[in-house]
Structures are given as C-alpha cells and as structure tokens.
Amino acid sequence: MAIGGVDLDIRHLQYFIEVARLGSFTKAAEALFITQPTISKTIRSLEEELGAPLFNRVGRSVELTDAGKVIEQQAQNIVKSFHSLSSQLDDLRNLESGHLRIGLPPMIGSRFFPQIIGRFHQMYPNVTIQLFEDGGKKVESDVVNGSLDIGVTVLPVTENVLEYFSFTEEKLNLIVPNNHPLAERSEVQMSELAEDFFIIFREDFTLHGRIIEACIRVGFQPRIIYESSQWDLISEMVGAGLGVALLPDTICNQINQRNVRIIPNIQPSIPWHLGIIWHRERYLSFAAREWLRFTREMMETR
Q1: For the CA atoms of 31, 69, 3, 40, what is the dihedral angle to 10 degrees?
Q2: Across the chain, which distance is largest between two alpha carbons, in Å?
Q3: What's the domain count of the chain?
Q4: What is the mean pLDDT of residues 247-255?
Q5: Cα atoms in the 13 Å half-sphere on the side-chain side of 236
Q6: Beta carbons within 10 angstroms of residue 297's beta carbon
Q7: In terms of domains, do 118 and 204 share one?
C-alpha cells in the first residue's frame, strides 16, 4: 500500500491508527498486544518515510499533528478497504466461520436475545459473538462508525445510513410508589407529573431524550433526580419513594410490584419500538447476513 508515493505496510497503518485513537503509545501497545518499543519504532519509521512528524507529545499522551490528521484519514480508508477485502475472501474460504460484534442496550438483551444467541450458536458453532452493552444512542453511533456490525436500538433511527427491521412495538408505562397520589389510577395525563421527580435512563439511552421530549410537549421540563443504566435499580428507587419512572411493557412484566404501582395508560402515549440495525453501505460478512436472516425469522415466529 502507498500514501503519497511512500510504500506502507497495513500493519504499520493499524499501529498508527491505534495510537491516534487512544492518544497513547502505551495504551496502543497494550491494545495490540505488542511492546511499546515496537510501536514507537514503527511510528518513528513512518515519520521518517513521510518526512513529517505525525504526533505531538503532550505529557504522557500524544495528539495528531496537521500532517498526522491528513495521513489518518487516508490510512483509515486503506485499512477499511483491506478489512472488507479480507472479510469477503474469508467468506469464500469458509462460509460458516466469522466473528460478530453486536450492540445491545442492557434492558433489551436479557429479555429478547439469550434464546436466539443459543440457537444461532447451535447452528453455527464456529461463529463467535461479542456483545457490547450500551445505550441505544451509543449503539447507533458505533454501527455507523464500524465499531459494531449489528445493533439493537429504539426506532426511529437518527442516521440515514442505517438499515433496520422492527421486531417489537410496545409503549411506556408509568411506575409510581404505592403511596403516590396517582397510584390507584388506571390512566394518567403526562401533564399531571409536572411536580414529580423523575428517575430515568442515562443520556446515552434513547429513552432519556424521548421522555424529556414527551414532558416538554405537554408543557413542563422534567425534574430529573437520578439517571441509571439499570431498569431494576430504577424500579427499586421508585419503590423507595424517590420519584416516578416510565418503563416499557417488557420491563414492567419483570418488576417486583410489592412497593410500586404500574399505571398502563399514560396520555399521550410514548411508543417503544425496537429494531435491529446495520450500515447499508458497509460490507456485511456471511455471519452478519445470516444473523440478520436468522433473527428476523425467529422474531417473526415468536
């Protein structure tokens, strides 16, 4: 491979990209399972071949120079093209091997996917699956930038490069403590919650923004007292009388209702539609394509 007439090894470009991503020679060496002197020597060799410094040393960290920023963009494109070619060749050599990186919001994974993953592994024991638990917004971002092959998020997606199929449509329910003034009601208007404290998911979860937007639409800014990534902690905090929460049907079915009341009708309703997403312009390995086909089939026959 060549950049600007200089012949470069793919491995060297990968070293350079990892240092740029982590901002540290030490962290890059650890991530690549090589020694720091090896990676330092590689970067020094690149700088000599290109005739320009690629990093500024700032204390224990490094940052890209202007020349480094130019090289990084081209290096990223070359490495992505190389990986895409390698993936396609691997598919031709062995159609039932591969590795999948799948992003799942924590409250979704345990409910919908253990059985699917188990069945998929039985059919394709040589395909390894790596799961990453993050909020829907982070999952979308990582599918867009290529850190994940496939993700699960709340629809609609915000990025137009994403394809998806929906696999469940639910709504949010109101969760209140047993002694809350609205606890005996079967239906509540969102506007009636203007004086309550809210316990919601963290900002990297799609529901974080959806709930705030729903409150603003009916005329108030929610008073958020606590944010969490764990639905069971949210329900426990509601039970302890710290505030109210809005959670989907699937989660409400798993809540211990000893200290809380679940009010199923909240108006206007807040939909919770889940979809499996992938990048429409990026090459999908056989394993990824088969996962999408297999998952869609299983979801449709639930």
Answers
A1: -40
A2: 75
A3: 3
A4: 88
A5: 5
A6: 10
A7: no
